[in-house]
Structures are given as structure tokens and as C-alpha cells.
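User: My collaborator and I are trying to settle a disagreement about how two of our proteins should look. Neither of us wants to argue from intuition anymore, so we agreed to look at predicted structures for both before our next call. Could you fold the first one, then the second, and keep them clearly separated?

Assistant: That sounds like a sensible way to settle it. I'll keep them separate. The first protein:
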Amino acid sequence: MGTTEIVLTTALLLIVVASVQPLARRSGLPFTVVLAVAGVLIGAAAGWLQSHRVTEQLDQVAEAVVDIPVSSSLFLTVFLPILLFQGAVTIDARRLMQDIAPVILLAVLAVVVALGLIGGAVWLVAPMPLAVCLLFGAIVATTDPSAVIALFRDLGAPARLTRLVEGESLLNDATAIAAFTALLSVILTGRDLDFWSVSEAMLIGLLGGALAGFLAGRAAAWMLEQLRFYRAAQLTIAVALPYAVYVVCEDYLGVSGVTAVVVSGLVLSAVGRSRFQAETFRFFQETLEQLAFWATSLVFLLAALLAPRMLADVTALDLVYLLVAVVAALAARAAILFGVFPLLSLARVTQKINTRTKTVIIWGGLRGSVTLALALAVTENFFVDPEVKRFIAIQATGFALFTLLVQGTTLSPLMRYLGLDQLSAIDRAFRSQVLQQSLSSVGSSLRSFAGRYELEDELVDQAIRPYNQRLSQVAEDDSFAEAISDRDRLSVGLIALANQEKSLLLQQGWSGGLRSTLVDRYLLSVEAMIDAVRAEGRLGYLRAARRPHRQTRWFRFIAWLHFRFGVNAPLALYLGQRFQFLLINRIIILELIYFLEFRLAGLLGDRLTEVLGEIVNLRLEDVERHIAALRLQYPNYARELDHEVLERYAYREELEQIDQLRSAGIISEDLARDLRTEAGSVHASSRRRARVDFKATTPELLHAFPVFAALPDAELGRIAKKLQTRVVADDAYVFRRGDRGDGMYFIASGAVEIRVGEEQHRLGRGDFFGEMALLDQRRRSADVRSISYSHLLFLPRATFEEIADLVPRWRSQLAEVAAARRAMNAGATDEGAGEEEAEGEEASPSAAASAEDKKTEAQPAAQEEGGQPEESEKASDPAAVAAEESGEQPSAKIVKLPGALKTRDSDGG
């Protein structure tokens, strides 16, 4: 066929695809099933016309259809990359990574079980070598999960379960193709079947492809970041990525191109979403969906055109082999769902799946494009025995057609029979609330519209009457109040808030209000809230919301570098990002309060809205507490960051004004482009990136410490320049017994615990410790450990001596405190049967006040419905939070000490 005939035939096939889509909707059958039937009918008709020679014109048409150049390379190189890439980009990769172990287990195990059962069963009845039967098993081990995933989404299945099935399917294809490649190599070389060599080849291909895909995905994400304002360039990079990765890996690196495409798509899914602007990302998704639709349609149609030729010489015995393969495939799928999934649910790796849903998943395992493409690759290979070609062609094509024409056509009736096509109880009950609000809005909007255009009141009443009748019927329906429990309604509200939070977060990322790395991490947190609501309800939501405020291992490590070696850059970057995250988090929570009052209140009712408001206010108080601690320690940085947030908001508003003028047709596209460029240049030139300065300690901060109250302001300014900020992670040691006493510490925020034998003392904000080692010129005699995220001010020995010489009364005050502590420690030592005395680092005189204040600190204003007060108490007590998050038991004994220098503010930081 010439180029003209190929182009014309392709265009006609696309017209067929467009015609089939409405037919599939009307018939209620899956689109791919109707498309496959159309392809088989067209292929059979073309073959009949070519053999019977009816007219010359029809002969030419038949020849164009029969001789269309369809090859496995067309399927695997042109269509498959974009199909896999689109599927990978659609998945929430960051959430998938939390379940990567069970996903890989399911993918690899499912392929191995299917390959073994199908290949082994067919080998028992067919006169073919085991390697050929296993090759057939690998070809049909790939599944198309689209029908099952659509079912899960319709049923509102847990997101984690849907992700497991989607991820398992993607990696299933990669594993099956890797197995296919290894087994085909065994057949072509004539080697004996060696399972270890096959496994080794599969492993190298999969791991090599995964590494190449990861590197390519990261490179593409970096390029997208640089091209943020160039929509066409971003889309070009994204569409070119799967093809470049596939070809390079398959033809040049010798690793699995399929795995590389899947991994690169997952990387782009994880880090690429925040790199696009809102409209560009939507257009990117729509573009990929359209390309994947064309690819899927042409694959099924072209493969179906070949089916009559590939099944031309089928025999009854071939049908027996096919029936054995079908039964074995269903048994393999059942073994995974009824054998492996229950174990995973017992291990709490995934949610439980009921028997009805498992049945639909087993029956919904359709085979399609990948199966037919791999079969075609075998039949085209000149080095494969003709009998093997015939066997693979008939069995693979027959298997795919059986799943499409039998399983595909009966899937919907099966779902109806099992009752899986109905709305859930929550959706049915919630339906009346949604209708009531929407119908009320229609009436008010219609009257406003009529008044604006001066329409007759009688016509308006006639138009509104049907809506009022429906509204009265809905108002009488009290199923929302009776059909579901308060807990379920509360879960609905929390999930709605989390989804709105996700939307607001992406707006911040697209507008530049939040850096893309922080957006990615925040999105992960919001997804965790949604899953936690489904699993644990209100308390799960609050725990997941607090999780981003906990200290990661990375923070502990960089805090240790900062404290021990003075390496400040990583910690400064971390604290800067944390501060920015908290500010944006506060803005988003305030937006959620507005959303709750004006959008959800009418749906959920006043009582439930009040409970949700209390929960959101708990989050707001938690965030504001963290912000206040950082503002206290780094006031200059806080002001700079506030200024940066305002600049970004102003820049976003300027761009929106330009876009509105362009949309209204007031300015031309050339002028709009010029204005955007100028705005971007001005913003870039004036933009300053705020940085945390650990050396910046203000005299105002020292006023929080009564020990400095006697010093004049001039001396406070000089001391502030000498103080060194030390950030300490929860459960990290400030110093240990026996360390050299090189200075004393003041607690700007946080809390520490001092341990001498069995005695323990806790200090909070405004307290100090470590001075006795300076007064007595000796080593430390106690262990001091941070029990929360703490900011300390370190006063070196030399500066301490300068202040003591300048203000003798200050040294005498500290000496009096030390004497009182020695007396207390002596008593504690006698009671402790020989415990060593505790120096000043064991406690400051304000410990008693701090401990009592921590216990009685103001509780959050709003308790959740049926909530547990002790959880709120923990949230307000840094020590309790630290103990809970680090898994420690409460302290054995807390000692109240005599006071001499009471702090002004002893709330525990």
C-alpha cells in the first residue's frame, strides 16, 4: 500500500471509531467490546469480498483493509508507550509509593501465578513444549483493568484499593512483557528452559528499565519547571517523554522499555502536577486522554481486523486448549484475590474486598491490545517454528476475543445481578440534601435573571413552579437524617473539606504561592487525611492533619549536624520551608472555614457544621501555635517571609487582571503577552528569597528571660549578638553527664528534661540550665534531653564571664540559685541511695510553675462531638506530644524545685 492509501484507510478507521462510541453507550456494552466486534466484522467482510471478487471497486476497498501494514512494532512502539504513560500519569504516584511493596508483590505474583497455571494447564493437554506454553501464558497474563477501576470509582471504593488495582495492572504489563522477552529468547536460541536464567533476565530488564525511567522522569520534571510559562513547550516535553524513553531503553540500553515508560510516568505524576499551571495541566490531561483514546481504539480495531485471518484454520482441538486456558486464567485470578488479598488485609496493608467485588474483578479481567501485540510479534518472527506461530496466533487471539465478547458483554449484567450498580447508602441519603440546595438555588437565580432582563412575573412563576414542586417533595424526605449515622455524615463533611483543601493547595502551587516541592508533600498529607477519615473517622483526620508537624528523620539528622558541628545551611532551608508551609497552611485553613460556612452548611445542617468548625479550628490553633514559636525565634525572617507572600499574591492578582482583560476582548493577545512579560520581569527583579539567620537574636527576645531583667538595653544588644541559636530535635540530647561545661542554655521555645539517676525535671520557655558548670568550673553531672522541638540560646563561657564581671549582682543571683539547687539535690541524693548530685542543668527555679502550667494550659476552644479530651491535652502539651510521637513512656518522677528567679512566661513553649 502507498502512503495515500494508508492515510485514507487510517482516516476511515477513525471515522468508524467515532461512530462506534455512541453505539456502545446505547447498547450498554464496553466501548472496546463493540469496537472489537466492529473490527472482526469489517475484517471478515473484507476477506470475503477479496475472495469472491464481487466488483473491482469493492475489491480495492477489501484489499486496502486486508493489506493494511499492521505489525507488532506498530503496536509496541507507536501505541503502547502512550497508553502506559497515560495510565501512569493518571495514578496518584505519591500515594501509590506508600503501597509500593504490596503493588509489586501483586504484580509479580499475579504474572508468575497466571503464567504458571495457564502455561502448565495448556502444556498438559497440548502437544507443545513447556517453553511455548509458558510463552502463551505470559502473553495472556496482561490485563486491562479499565472496567474494574470504573466499577470501583462508581462504587466509591477506598482510594487505596483502587490504587492497588491500578498500580498492579501497570506493573503487571511490564512484568509480563519482561517474561515474554525472556521466554521468546529461550525459544529462539533453542536453549533448555532454565528458570534461573529466565528470572535473571527478567530482573535485569525490570530494574534497568526502572532506573532509566526514574532518571528520565526527573529530568523531564526539571525541564517542566524551567518552562513553567511556556505551555506548548511543556506539552511537547511531556508527550515526547514516553516515546524517547521506550526507544532508548529497548534499542540502545537493552532493558525493559515498558518498565521505563511506566516509571517515568509515575515520576511525572508525583512531581509534575505542581510544575504545570492550572489550565496547562488540565489541557495536558485532556491531550493524554485523547491520544490514549485514539491509540486504544486503533489497537483494538486493527487487531480485530487481523482476527479472521489468525483464526482461519482453527480446529475443535484448538477450542479445547482455549477452554483450558480460560479456566486456568480465572483460577489464577481467583488465587490472588481469595488467597493473597485476605493475607494483605490481615496485615493491614490494604482494605478488605467483599466476595461480590472479587467476583466482578475476576470476571472483569479483559485482555486486549498488549496481548494481541505480543502475539503478533511471535507470528512475524521468521525464526519461530510455523507450528508455534499458528498455536500462539490462534490461542492468544481466541483468548482475547473470549474475554471481550463473553466476559465483556456479561460484566454489566453480572454487576446488576450482584447489586453493585446501586448508589451507596450514604450517597442515597446525601442525594436529597444536594437536590434541596440546588433546587433552591435555581429558583433564586431564575428570579434574579428575570428581574435583570425585566421578564414578566407570571412567566417566571410558571418556570419556577416545577422546581418548587420538586423542592417540596425533597423537603419531605428525611432519609438524610435517618438513613446514615452522625459519624458517616461527619466523614462526608471531612472528606469534602479535604478535597477542597487539595484544590486550594494546587491553586497555591500553580500561582507560585508555594514551592512545588512543598506542594508535593502537602498533597501527600491531604490524601492521608482522606484515607484516615475512611478508616478512623474524626480522630484519624486530626492525626493525619498533625502528621506534617512531626519531626522527620531528615530533620533530626540536620538538627544534629547543626547542633554538633555548626552546619546551618540544611537546617536553615528546612526551617524556611516549614515556615512557608505553615503560613500557607493557615491561609488554606481559613479558606476552609469560609467554604464550610457558605458551601457545606446548607448540605450538612447547623449541628454538623458546628462540629466540623470545631475540628477545623483545632487545626488552626495548632498551626498558629507553631507559627508563633517560629515568629518568636526568627522575627526578621518572619517579616521577610510575610513580605514575600504578599509579593507573590500581588503578582498573581496582576496576572489575573491581565487574563480577565484579555478574556473580555478589551486588549489583544500581543498586548497581554507583553504585559505578562513585564510583570514577570518586575516580579523576578524585586523578589528576595528570605533566609533563616541563626545568628540574629534580638534584644526583645531576651526580655522573655527574667535572668536578664537587671541588664541595661545596651548590654542586652551586645549579649544578643554573642548568643548562638541551637535548634534541637525531639528526643535529642543537649549534653550528657561528663561533657565539658562550655556554656549555659536559655529556652526560647520548647521543653527539655533533665535526668539525674531516677530524678527527672522538666523546663519550658523562659527557663535556663547549665550555669553551675560555669560557676563551679567542673564537668556536667546530668543528662539533658529535648522533649519537644526546641529552640535554645547558647551563651558561651567567655561571654558569661564578661557579663558576670560587668554585672556582679548577676553572678551572685546565679550563685544563690545554685546553692538552693545543691541543697535540693543533696536531699534527692539521700533519698535516691547514692545518686550523684544534680547541677543547675537539672532544673531552673521555674520548673514547678512550668510543669503546672503545662498541665493547665488552655484547652482548644472546641471539642469534637464525642471527642476525647485527653487528645486535646496532649496537643497543647509539648512534652506529651513528644512522648506520644517518640513512643516513650511518661517520666518516672517529676521533682518540683525551690524558686528564686521566676519566669514571666512558663507555658512550656
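The second protein, kept apart from the first:
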Amino acid sequence: MAAPAGTWLAAPWSPTTISLHPPDYSVFASPEFDPNDYANAVLAGEPYVLPSDTRTKPVLPSTKVAETPGKEEISIAISKLTFGIDDVSKQIKALVTNHHQDLLSQAASANELSGSLTSVRAGLADLDHSLEKLRVKVRVPYQSLQTNVSRLQKLQQASDVLRRTSRFVILARRLQNQMAEMESGSSTPDQSLPLIRSKSDESALGQDLEDGKERTIAKAALSIAELGMSLGPSVSRTWLTSLQRRYWVARPHGCPKKTDFESRISLRSVNAIAVHVPYIEDARAKVTSEMENMVLTGLTSLNQSLLASSLQTAYNLRVLPELVQNLILELSQAVDDRIRTAFDLSKISKEILSKDSAPSPTQYKSRVRTEPTNLTAPQWTAALWARLEVMVQDMAECCVKVYTLERVLKIKKDTVSHVVFLDEAMKLLENKPSATFWTALARSLEKNTRDAARSSMFLQQTLSTGYPRLLRLFHEFFAKIAVHTDTTYIHTYQSPETVIVLRALSNFESLYLTRSSTKLNESVSQAFSGEMRTPPGMVQGINVARTVANELDSARFDPLLVKAVAKSATASIDTIVSRVDGSVSRDRSSVTLVGPSATPQQAINGSLATFLYHTWLLLSQLGEEQKETVYNIIKPSVDNLHAAYKRIVNPLLTAIRRELGAIISKMHRFDFGRSADPMAGMGGTSLYMKDFVEKLAFIKNEIFSKFGIGDEKRAWYVIMSLVQYIIKTFVLHVSIVQPLGEAGKLQLTSDMTELEFALSAFLVESSQEKRGGNLESVGPEYKMLRAMRPLLFLENSQLVLSQYTAGLPPLIVLHHILVRSPIPLPHSLHGWQEAEYVRWVDEHTEEEAWTLVDGGLSHWERTTESEGSEKEDAMQYVNLARKVLAATQLL
């Protein structure tokens, strides 16, 4: 059965569609089917084979083609062909009938597409025509222009070669004249000059000739550099000096890049130019040699003018950065060699052996020693310090040369381009020449000193022990270069360069500081060697303070070393404070005043306080001897010594004041308002005053004797403050004694006299400044005690007059007025004990005490008015008190 008609028509031909045809039509459906070959095959009775089958595989004789039309009869073949034609016609007709709508639409689309293709074809034709016109207008002129441009380039190259050749010839002739002037012109005397000249004229003439030669060399260098630029990128390595060869790989300074000359013809290809090249190379070598000699001479003699001329020559030769870098490296290397030689013990040994007498032929020759013996140690030490002095001298010379070079580079400018030479040199240098030199010097010092200290115990011990002497050598070094450099090394300011160099000696400095710290710690340990049995005292404190002062004085000449020693001393002083704090007794027995003698704890604390006080006293005097910056380092630790001393003394002083105040407060147990005092035997002092005198004698003889604080004015304040407290407390208690009669006043006067005697004896035996009473030195408190006697016997009207109450505080006068009146005292009004009130007054200001009295007066007035009591007699005392309070407002 035939396939649908639409399938054959719609699907395009492909191997897949061939396989869908009926077997009888497969041969006819092939694109390679040839009717003539098929008819010939049928007539010949042979099978018809497609050309593609014959190419892919041969047809064997035994191969049988099934139902091949070629093997049938002609009539049968024609019948089959006719049938096939009819069948195909029917199928086509069926396809057309079934798909006539699609065929019509495709035909219409094809017709429309045909019209569009016609317009496109017309447009393409116009485009081809326009393109042809443009080709005629553009291509022909372009080809002509290209020819002319090529010709112009060749003319320009020829013109450039001629121009550069002309310039080269001019420069070469100028160089010849300059070289001739440099070699012989300066040595030919001017015939026009007088034959007889003075020495000054000859000196000036020689200087002018030298200046002229230097200028000629600089001009020749500029000509050589320009000639080298003219020769192009094929410059030979023979043109490079030793300086340039060293840095050729890193930076071929002065040589143009290859890209600058890619389109230029080298002048070396010109025969007229090539003839001059050897002469220019010789001239360059001579100018370079002269330049190097001028540089060395200028640095050696520190001739800035000559050095500036040589640097100008180097700049003209395009080798200034390389020259400066090479000079800095050579000077740094020279310093490194000097330092290495100074610390080389093998050379020191050879030097000492060479100074000794020549050995006899039979004497045994030992190997060179690298460490001295006990006998040769002084010779080795002297040789070492001599080498170090030479090393410092060489370091100073090299440093001055570097700074001279940098100064000239900073000042000198090129006359044409106005380029500063230092900026030009910095194109190759990473830092300024001086900074580079200082860094190299510090690095070399640090390395050689570290290696020397590590390899030789002799060097380590000698230079650590003699580190101050080594520092003094470097002080001389800084002083020598200070004239030529901007470095400063004084107590107030140290240049960073000097600090870097001295930090390179940190190995020996640390060893010296270790020795110093060990010495300080040994003095501290020796002071505490007796432990609690024999605690340190005045002698040990003085020894420790002197050790600290001696160490600071030894390092006083160097601002950095003395600060380091001060920091080390601070640690030792802090150790003293910590050890004393651990040894101080703080229990009740250390402050008890029972007697009859001081407790062992008080003796220990007294010895420790004495030790702290004398250590602090001597160390505090260092503020006048040392610089302020140095003393400020140890000042906190010195203050800690005094604070530790106060932590020992203050609790005992507080206990003494409390005990004496308690004894004085016992006066209120006696009735001073009676006509006669039965407590006073035979008109003597009161019992409380006898107790007070005994207790004061106990404190003086037993307690204060353990504290050897001396008689210095700084220690005197402890006793003086205690005496002032006693007088003030006694007067306050006396002023509030109530009731007070005439006999009581006399008894109090007797007690005051006894108190003066006791205090005078206390001060006389505590001070060696005067033999006798010294209560006048107490100050206002003593005047207050002396003024208290007449106050007791004044009339009421005299209590407000200043001439009768001079030396007494207003509060004491107020108390005495209230004692005479029926008005209650402030402590009675508030329900306080007398001792509590006195303590309150001591802890508060006078203004607060006056306010308290004023408040008591106001309270009494209000209470009296409310109760309706008679107050005429008491008002006179109120008025007196008001007048005293009013007078306090004027103070």
C-alpha cells in the first residue's frame, strides 16, 4: 500500500526518506539515478547498480539482486515503469488534492518573495556600483599617499641622521678642545702676566687655575654625556664606569630606553662617526678618573667647593646617584672594618706579641692566644681601649665626610635644569645619606659587640665593667661631629641618631645595669641580713642610700644611662618597702603604752622606722644633686619610703595622743569649784597632771628613744606636732572645766606651770639645738598656754577686749564666758562627754565650732523665754559671747 501522498511531497530528500519509499522505487528515488544507464542496463540484461554502490563496495558475480528490473524482459520492465508512472501520478494528484490550500499559500508567498528579492537585487546592484566608485576615489589616492609617506619617512630619517651627525661632529670638536684645555691649557702660563709675583698672588693664581680646570672637566663631562646619548642604544659597556657596571642590571641610569630609539638609525653605522668613538671612550675614562680623584680629595680635605665641582661632573656624566651610593657604601664599609678590627682579639694578641722582645731561636713558639692570662690582662686591656679610641676617631672622620657630602648635595643645584643634587641622588637611595650611614653604623656596632661579648669573656667583662668609659668615648665622638652635623646629645635632648648608636651597645649596658642592680640588691640584703633579731637601723639606711647615690653619680655623665640606673634603683627601693612592710609588727603590743618599758615589737618598729627615715632623708636630697628628669624617676619610690615610715609612726603617734588626751580629760573628775582642792597635796599639782608627767617621761625615755630619727628639722616636726597637740588639748579641757572657783583657778595655774616644766624637759632632752626651755619654738600654741593663766582671773568686761585675750582663740574665750554663766556648754547641751567634745573640736573647723556655740546661745534664749525664767543675770554673758562671735566675723 502506498504511503500518503503528502509525505513524499512535503518532506525533503534525505537518507531517511529514501528508506521510506517502496523497494521498487528506491532506485528511481536516488539522486544519482541516471535514466540512460538504467535503459542500457535493461537492454543489456544486466542489473542496474547505482554509482555510489560501486564506489563503496564491489559487486561480486555470485551476488544476486532480488527482483532487479534489469534482469527481466523489456516488455515487463516497460509495464512496470508504466505502472509506476501511473501510480506516482495518482499519488501526486492525491497530494495536490489534499493539500491544495497549503500549496496555494506557498505559491502566493513565493510570488511575494520574488518581488522582494527583485528589489533587494536592485539595491545590491546599486551598492556594488557605489562601492566601485568609492574604490576608485579612495584606493588610488591611498596607494599614492602611502608611497609618498614612505618616501617622506626615508627623507626624515636621512635628515635626522644628518642633523645628529652634524651635532655629533660639533660636540666631538668641542670635546677635543676641552680635553686639550684640561690636559695642557692650565699648565701653560699666561705671557701677559708679570714675571715677579708675590706668594699671595701665586696662591690666588693657583686657585684660579684649579677652578678653571674643574669647570673644564665638568663641561667635558657634559659633552661626553651628550655624545653618548647621540650614539643611541647600542652603547658599549666600555662606556660605563665601574660605578655604572655595578648597577647596570638594576638601573642603567643615563642610558635611554630601547623604545626611544627603535625608529632611529644608529650613528655607529656612519663611518665618519665610528672614527670618533675610541677617542670619546678614552676621554670618558680620563674625565671619570679625574672626577673620582676630585671626590676623594674633596672628602679628605672637606673642601666643599671641590666636592661640588666633582658632583657637577658626575651629574653631567649621568652617574651622580651611583657615585653617591657607592661613596656611602664605601664609608659604611670602612666603618664596619674599623669596628671589626677593634674587637678582633686575634689582632690584639698579635699586636701585643709584636711589642714583646723577639724570642730566642730555641724558645718554644706557642699559638696565638685569644684570651689573656692574669699577667697579660692589663696589656690586653690597654690595647683594647687604644683600639677603641682609634675606632671612634675613624668613625668621626667618616661621619663628617658623610655629612659634608650630604650638605653639598643639599645646596648644590644644576645651573641649567636647577635640579637639586640630593633629589637626583635619592632616585637610587632609599634614604638620606646620613640616615643610611647611621643605620649601617648602628647595625655594625650591634653585630660586632654582640659577637665579641658572646665569643670572649675578656671583652664581656672589660667592656661591661668599663661601660662608663666606653660611653665617654662615644661622648667624644658626638662632640667631634657636632661641629659638622646637626646631632645633639645633652641631658635635655638626644638626637635620634645618637640614641640609635648607643642602643647598639645594649649588650654591655645590660651587663653594667645587671652589675649595678646586683650591687644595690646586695646592700639591701646586707641591711636585712640580721632578720628580726637585729633589724636594720640608721647605719644600714645610710649605707643603702649612699650606694644608690654612688651608682647614680657614676652614671651621671650620660643622660640615658643615669635614667636606666635610676629605674634599677627604683626596683631596689621598692624591695626595701616590701621587706619592711613584711617585718613591721602591727598588733596591739606595737602601740601599747602600759610600760614600764617599750615592748619588743615597738623596738623592732622603731629600728625599721629609723632605717626608712634615714634612707628617705638621704635619697630625698638627690633632687638637689641630680637632674629633675632623673630624680622624677625615683621620686615615687622615695615617697613610698616616707609613706612606709609614716605607716609605722602614725599608729603609735595616734595611740600616744589618745593616751595623753585621756589623761588630760581626767581633770574633769576633780571639783575645781570648791574653795580648797583636797586632791592637791601640800598645794602641789593635781594627780592627773602627775600621771601625765610620768606618762610623758615614759614616752620620751622608752618609746622615742627607739626611734633614732635624729635632730634634723625634718624629723623635729614629729615632736613639735605632739607638743602642739598636748597644749591645744589641755587648753580646751581647761576652758570647759565647770564649775570653776578661785581655788580651782589657782590649781589650774599650778597644773599649767607643771605642764610647762614637763614640756620644756621633753623638748630639751629631745633637741640638742639649745640647752634649756624651747617652748617658744612651739608657736601659737605656747602663746595660747601662757595667755590662759590671766584669762582665768579677768573681769567679765575684760573678756571681750583683745588686749587682754591676745594669743587665745575666740572659742577658748567663748568657753570661759559660758563657764562663768549659767548657760550650758555645747557638750552639755548635746549630751557629750568632755573628751568627745574636745575630739569634735579637733576634727572640725573653728567656724563650725563658733556656729555650735551660737546655736547653744540661741537655744538657751528660746528655752528661757518659753519657761519665763529670770535671765537678767545671764544676759550679760550672752552679750559678751555675742560680741566675741561678732568679732570673729571680722577675722
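Some points you might bring to the call about the second protein. The chain is about 70% helix and 0% strand. The chain has five domains: 5-98, 148-185+206-318, 345-355+376-464, 512-652, 721-888.
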